[in-house]
Amino acid sequence: MDMDNMFGGGANNGQPGGGQIGQFPLEQWFYEMPVCTRWWTTATVIISVLVQCNVITPFQLFYSFRAVFVKNQEEQKTGKAEIKASPAHRQGLTISLQQFWRLLTTFLYFGPLSLDLLFHVFFLQRYSRLLEETAGRSPAHFSWLLIFATSILLTLSPFLSMPFLGSALSSTLVYIWSRRNPETRLSFLGLLVFTAPYLPWVLMAFSLVLHSTVPKDEICGVVVGHVWYFFNDVYPPLHNGHRPLDPPVWWTRLFEDRNQQEGEEQLDDTGAAPVETDIAAAVAPDVR
């Protein structure tokens, strides 16, 4: 029994994917993923491998408001008051203390190599991929969703004591997908059959039983996901199609210009219009 059967719904129903002939299954699976999902999944695995090999530690990865924003200023003031150094030296000291990488790594670390990590990677790439594929060819809308969700989670993290936010972000994507596919039927471990909207709550219950703690990161992810779902799927039909959380025009143009250039290059190389495989239709035909 593979994971696709364990958490069914959205399978490809035997239809061919978007991989190229002659690729190994793992390689084909990797290149079939959209760009945002592909790099997020890759970075997650690499970070876990580096931690497992003791190249880096989790203490270098978690998000801390003080470590990112406050501590640097305090250290800089201390250096100016007690250290008689040149301006160049003080500037180098300040730069060395900046830890802005934590804004990113907090979403990439799910734990060391383990079965738990395998489940996290599965959910991450599965539902992130489904959402990104149904967002269209341009990654503008999906990347804007990631920016919105990560910004809200980073804001809430200091108040809820959540140093690692990868599970919360993954729960956000799972919730959005589940609400957009209310008729999709899923099975959990082959024992429990339910429709997609219950998926986030089933995962919370499973996490509660497994870890004996309230999964506040997943609850927080559901709240953020509901805000996005409401303003993108519920609010617009009631307000003449107004979508307040759509990406700004300048953000969309960044990706449209890039896609247009890639399309022109492909047209010049082949002498025909580029053909794009509609993975979304094959993977989840009922996803909006």
Give an overview of the whole structure.
It is a single chain. The chain has a two-stranded antiparallel ribbon with strand order 1-2. A hairpin with a 3-residue loop joins β1 and β2. By secondary structure, it is mainly alpha-helical. α3 runs antiparallel to α7.
Which terms would index this structure?
288 residues, mainly alpha, two-stranded antiparallel ribbon, 63% helix, disordered C terminus
Map the helices and strands.
Layout: H1 3-6, H2 25-32, H3 35-52, H4 65-82, H5 87-97, H6 102-105, H7 115-134, H8 140-160, H9 166-180, E1 185-188, E2 192-195, H10 199-211, H11 216-238, H12 249-270, H13 279-283
Antiparallel strand pairs: 1-2
Helix pairs in contact: 3-7, 4-5, 7-9, 8-11, 9-11
Give a brief description:
With 288 residues, the chain is an all-alpha fold. The protein has 13 helices and 2 strands. It has helices spanning 3-6, 25-32, 35-52, 65-82, 87-97, 102-105, 115-134, 140-160, 166-180, 199-211, 216-238, 249-270, 279-283, and strands at residues 185-188, 192-195.
